[in-house]
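Demo today. Your pick:
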Amino acid sequence: MATFRFEISNKPNRNKKYMLMLCVTVAGKRKRVKTPIELDKPGDFNPKCRGENWVRASVPDAKVLNAHLSAILDRAKDTYKELDKDGEVSSARVTKEMNTEMVSPSFLAFARERAQMIYDNGGWRNWRKYCGLINKLDTFRKKRRMPDITVEDLTVDLLTRFDNFLHKWENEREPGKLLHPNTIEVQFNILRTLVHRAIEVGIMEASKDPFLVFKYKGVKTIKEKLSEEEMSRIIALELEEGSLIWHCKNYFLFSYYCAGIRAADLIQLRWRNITESGRLHYQMGKNHKDRDLVLVEQALEILRYYHNDDAKPDDYIFPLLDNNAEYAKYITQADKDRMKPDLRHLLYQQVSAKNALINKYLKKIAEKAEVTTNLTMHISRHAFAHIAQESGAESSAIKNILGHSNLATTERYMGSFDTSKTDSTLRSLFAKKKTGADGLTDEEREQQAIELLKGMSPEQIMSIISAINK
């Protein structure tokens, strides 16, 4: 008979982690084999657990880690049975076999667990991206007839083959086209994040990170923008007051006048976000940063239309979300962070649906205003940044008003718009030189006059100047 149990090391290793080990006892003799699982502290391990919950639920990725430990335990038991058939079983033999045939954890299972954690934390947009990658990895696995994609499978060769596979994947949003190179870059960015997380939790060795060698970079794209003249046409566009398209124009312009407030934030604005001193104060949902902006007269004019005497501080400013919905009770960003996953998902779906509706009508507005840019709510942010730059605003000021974390982000954001230097060079280089009736340019005529003056005496020059002054 043999017994198997997991133990945790008494002392941390050089990474300041505590390693889990499998203790195998055969005929009274014990041997221990190291597992790849490392924990931050001894208390994260439960030696008297019920079922297969050795790693406590409070530890991130506990389900994945416990699944891996379960696979190691099954492998140890199978190894014991195989050796026992030959009559040469011992704890030393079992652990030796375990060292050479240690089970590699499922990377797909790990990825699914991470995606579920993101879902539970309300990161719906990222959850969808993670699910997209997992779907592609699973399809890739099936095509290559792989039973699973384990951590050991993640090699440079596999990523190269996956890269080739993605370049043949049809674009679901644009039938007939393949994935955009930048979409493929997003897939590899998520995959790299997952790999690095696997290294952090101890199911993958840092030295085996395939991204130390494998690199993928998308292509540079040009950000769409609106010129000041195009923006003026949108502002001047006359629409039936109170119509849906008229409201959508107001939403777009309010965003523009408020330095490109993002659609999700605008849709969720409450009257409490408007201060008595005429400022807009809110916390951005994307990064939880506070924004405090003065409301220019154009923005105040839009707000006056939507305000009424019965408006409560917690009511939504714009008629997009239901004030009586369950999610409406969660007002601040801190409140929303404590919402249950299903309710947060419902709010996300409502905001996404309203954003899609606004964008649908913005396309009609662009057509009426004869604007060729693909007009969306986010373009208001680009338009503000571009026009602010054209007006001479400093990058540091634009950074602060956009809510960027650092100037480098703003400069990268503005790089697509800044054409002032190239415009100046081209105009100077190819400027047409005007000629007079004598066929000479101003520069040539000036040079000719200088040459004539050189041959005159001071008295003659003074005589000419006196004649000119008369």
The mean pLDDT is 84. The longest strand covers residues 29-39. The chain has four domains: 2-103, 108-212, 228-420, 433-470.
